[in-house]
Amino acid sequence: MKMKTILVVLLAVALAVTGVWFWHTGQVRDRVAASLPALPDLSTAPAALRERVLLADAHARSRFGAARGFRELSRVYHANGFLEEATRCYEGLEKLEPKEPRWPHLHATILAGYGEIDPALALWKQVHALAPGYLPAQLRSGDSLLKANRPQEAAAAYETALKLEPDNPYALLGLARLDLEAGRWEQARPRLELVVRRTNYTLGYDLIVSLYERLGLTQRATEIRAMAKASGAYRDADDPWFDSLIEDCFEPYRLSLAAGAIGRNGDQATARRLLERAVEVAPDDVSVRFQLGTLLIAQGDRKGAVWHLRRCTELAPDFSDGWANLSALQAVLGDAADAARTLAEGLRQCPQSPGLHLQYARNLQQAGRIPEAIAEFQTSIRFRPNEPDAYLELANLYFRLGRNAEGLAEMERVLLTEPAHPQALGILALHAIMSGNEEEAQRRVTAARNQPRVPPEQMQELVSAFRKQFGRAP
User: Fold this and answer.
1) How far apart are CA 312 and CA 23, in angstroms?
2) Which of 91-100, 368-377, 447-456 is the least confident region?
């Protein structure tokens, strides 16, 4: 009897718990259904993206797993540029899961991108309360406050970021901008110097040049400006919650941009994975396939690179870079005959390609067919007169032939295309020294000294030659 009573009680409890669970899941489903955006126009979207959106939408509308499907749908929309739909999802998720800081943070990034600063800041205020240690939210708040011309609040946000990560370059850069706007030059200087030192001039480059010029440090400003081509590309601060959206991206262009940034920062494995997804989604997209092919060359996967580069030439015969890179890779692999055939076909398909004519000129020079090589160098220059490579190689060929006047003339043309080209600066400086023209030699050596990409050993040779020729240091 007692056992039967216990079983009845347990059954009643189980039914009650089950009822509550069913009621709760029904409540969640109803809340999600009320917040779901209408499906966007997916008629031109890649098939994989259409399938992913429709599947996530179906999950979000189901009785069981509606919340999980809703989260998935928000990420897919945001990652693939459906920002109105993503915003609607985040508004619903903020109500459904009010203690989760990711939703207001991701929502705020969209609003800030639209220029809706105050609503974005209100959301980041929620993020700071829920996740006070999340540095990217502090940095984004500071940047938005800076744009909104609220300097005291922006400074407070950056100072908070520095408490989370001392010497964070993005926070220091924000404070330096505030200093510059307020005319506090000397206060901005150490901050900017630390920023450029820690980021190899990928942050703060333009600001520190302007600051040095204001402070009268013109030589230092000139030296840094000459480093522009040597510095890396700018990148945003890491934001794991936002950056992870790329895992749900199926739009080839976005994948390509993300892969490029990630690859430049050293994570080539992730860059390759994203590009392979882009190629899978859009197999006829030449740009992403070419990007993958060149990445595979850098990774040493030459067989894979040949496949993708050859496919580029099939998909777009008028895309000269596909032919050029395929021919160069075949030459590296020792397939001289294939490399020559590829280059010849590339020139037939793209007769005005400066890169292909430059490559053909190099081949002719290596084969000892010098007059033809010179003609091809000149053809490459004619089609692309604003790049230094063909001028430089033609100049060096003239020097080897003993045609120094023609070589020097080509070196002068190099400087017209790139005024601080290190090799041209060094060669022209040495010629001026050897010619005994002290005024010109001084000018050339000074230009070389102000170019950090001139190797130190070459600079020492120039100084030594100048002293030997003119009896004093330049």
Assistant:
1) 56
2) 447-456
